[in-house]
Design goal:
Blueprint: H1 3-16, H2 23-45, E1 56-57, H3 62-71, H4 73-84, E2 88-93, E3 96-101, H5 104-112, E4 116-117, H6 118-122, H7 142-163, H8 166-185, E5 190-193, H9 195-211, H10 214-217, H11 220-235, H12 239-243, H13 250-275, H14 283-289, H15 294-324, H16 327-344, H17 353-357, H18 362-367, H19 370-383, E6 389-392, E7 397-399, E8 402-404, E9 409-412, H20 415-418, H21 443-446, H22 462-479, E10 480-485, E11 514-519
Parallel strand pairs: 1-2, 3-9
Antiparallel strand pairs: 2-3, 4-6, 5-11, 6-9, 7-8, 10-11
The structure holds protoporphyrin IX containing FE.
Residues 1, 3-5, 8, 118, 153, 157, 160, 304, 307-308, 311-312, 315, 380, 388, 451-453, 457, 459-461, 464-465 line the site of protoporphyrin IX containing FE.
GO molecular function: heme binding; iron ion binding; monooxygenase activity; oxidoreductase activity, acting on paired donors, with incorporation or reduction of molecular oxygen
Protein name: Cytochrome P450
Transmembrane segments: 24-45, 300-325
């Protein structure tokens, strides 16, 4: 997906960038503009030679290319791969060189090469502003950057592992189910929901529960306030605020206010937990016990929310949409949930289903839901046209016979695999059976699959994301009958089209689509 990706990194980036407005930044602003303008004119009047040994450089105004890259990323990349006929092409974002890559060799290098920086790559979303190599006149060498990247990401991932430890997840499952059930109760016995609002709210609640503390997660007004600030940040990640973060735009102001609001809110709850008489097993307490200071805990909580909400919410919404249009597949998924209930819960109990489901061991969710697993995988595959980013820190990186300059940014769009006939015949067809995960003829189970990342940076939250999606699906499919409807409540004629160019919420294009439901079980 544009995955962690835009979300975690732009999210974290926004928290890092409380930069004061000083003459230094005015100067930086003017010089960046000048460099950008000169670069644009140079590229336009003196296009590069495009000889066979060099990476093909796009012609035209670099500002237009940069604009397309941020606003129409999918179309921009694929139209240029088609137009140029090359596996690699380059363009400029401000004064940075960006290399778009496709093909098997490029993919393997992109995900596995040690000297590609993950964190530096995502700084492209801030126009490379920050401590990028050239912005300090090469003050930082590769080893410094690598060391910093390793320390911060290793620490973040270690903490995440601790929070997402199996035992802790098993304990938190009943509370997560209560959260889902409480949100669903607000919907009533029948009605219509906008999945891209209501399911996202649900995922937001669950993520806050996982990543913070009870005092926050059980206060609906605070969770709502936090959600409002979070979406403000997401929506204000505009081209100007990402590319020119020093520019005093309204988006920048809103971003800073929302970012400060979120940090203050989480800091407050960290303080509450630091003063608590009895520690508990909530994430904030686990981090306090681990010796983490307040800023690191705030960073962790918000980082986890940014990494988790958009992707998990998006997949939960789209799974419901795809199943809404594929009845046979929906029935198979419902049957799997019913089997699970019959096998692991007390069927003669009068307890509501969410409480009964809470008693199923975590291994059930992970290992005994192959149908749901392939539905999620297929949804991820079809939606998975995100663009992971990297920065090259190596002197002599060769890809497909060409040299990538040190300091160049690199982008690889996952559709190169996920929507590629060679790996997935009829790639736009929703067909979870293509992942015949247990069969002998499991060719597509072995095709490259990048939706959870691969190589050096696989998704550290995959297990919790899958668990949350399965829990939502299980409860929704068991409790409700539903159909997809349009704005006027009439059955939707076709599955909504995915807008592959959006970096954030991946809402459908065109007419909005709703779920009309009727409760059939408690
Ligand atoms: C459906 C939900 C999710 C999807 C599809 C997803 C996808 C991805 C992908 C594709 C990457 C690799 C990006 C790259 O190579 O540039 C990644 C990395 C990562 N994800 Fe997720 N993610 C999801 C949910 C989560 C959640 C819930 C968390 C945290 C609780 C999380 C934490 C991370 C982290 C920390 C990394 C970076 C790993 C590293 O630096 O090595 N993700 N994710």
């Amino acid at each position: 997906m544009t995955m962690l990706n835009a979300t975690l990194s732009s999210g974290l980036a926004q928290f890092e960038s409380h930069l004061p407005w000083t003459p230094y930044f005015t100067l930086a602003a003017v010089s960046s503009l000048l460099v950008g303008l000169l670069g644009t004119l140079y590229a336009y009047f003196f296009p590069s030679g495009n000889d066979a040994n060099k990476i093909h450089a796009l012609r035209g105004f670099s500002a237009v290319n940069a604009w397309m890259f941020f606003n129409k990323r999918y179309d921009f990349l694929w139209s240029n791969f088609d137009k140029t006929g090359h596996d690699l092409f380059s363009f400029k974002v401000l004064h940075h060189q960006v290399v778009a890559m496709s093909g098997d060799e490029a993919r393997k290098i992109f995900f596995n090469e040690k000297k590609l920086s993950f964190l530096e790559g995502y700084r492209l979303l801030r126009g490379g502003v920050g401590h990028a190599i050239e912005s300090h006149g090469s003050l930082l060498n590769d080893r410094d950057i690598k060391a910093e990247e390793d320390d911060s990401t290793i620490m973040f991932k270690q903490r995440l592992l601790k929070i997402l430890h199996r035992d802790r997840l098993q304990d938190v499952i009943p509370t997560l189910f209560s959260d889902i059930s409480r949100c669903m109760e607000n919907w009533g016995a029948e009605g219509t929901i906008d999945p891209f609002k209501d399911i996202y709210d649900l995922v937001f609640q669950m993520t806050v529960r996982m990543a913070s503390c009870q005092e926050l997660a059980t206060d609906p007004a605070m969770v709502q306030k936090m959600g409002d600030l979070y979406w403000k940040l997401e929506q204000n990640a505009t081209l100007v605020s990402l590319l020119l973060p020093w520019f005093p735009s309204t988006a920048r102001k809103t971003t800073r206010q929302a970012s400060k609001g979120l940090s203050d809110m989480v800091s407050h709850y960290v303080e509450v937990r630091q003063k608590a008489d009895v520690p508990n097993l909530d994430a904030i307490d686990v981090l306090i016990a681990d010796g983490a200071d307040t800023p690191s805990i705030v960073h962790f909580v918000l980082g986890t929310i940014f990494a988790g909400v958009v992707n998990t919410g998006m997949i939960s919404c789209w799974v419901l949409l795809y199943l809404g249009f594929n009845n046979a597949c929906k029935q198979k998924t419902i049957a799997e949930v019913q089997n699970l209930i019959a096998k692991y819960t007390n069927t003669s109990s009068s307890e509501p289903i969410h409480q009964r489901l809470s008693t199923a061991p975590i291994s059930t969710w992970e290992d005994e839901m192959p149908v749901t697993e392939s539905v999620i995988r297929e949804t991820l595959r079809i939606l998975g046209s995100g663009t992971p980013l990297r920065r090259n820190l190596a002197d002599d990186l060769r890809v497909a016979g060409k040299t990538i300059d040190k300091g160049a940014f690199m982008v690889y769009n996952s559709a190169d695999v996920h929507l590629n006939e060679r790996f997935y015949p009829e790639p736009l067809k929703f067909d979870p059976d293509r992942f015949n995960l247990t069969g002998e003829d499991d060719t597509q189970g072995k095709a490259p699959f990048l939706a959870w990342g691969t190589g050096r940076h696989p998704c550290a939250g995959m297990k919790i994301a899958k668990l949350e999606i399965k829990m939502i699906l299980a409860l929704f499919l068991y409790r409700y009958e539903y159909t997809l409807v349009d704005q006027s409540g009439k059955p939707a004629k076709q599955l909504p089209q995915l807008d592959r160019n959006t970096i954030q919420k991946k809402k459908p294009m065109g007419e909005p689509c709703y779920l009309m439901y009727r409760k059939v079980a408690e």
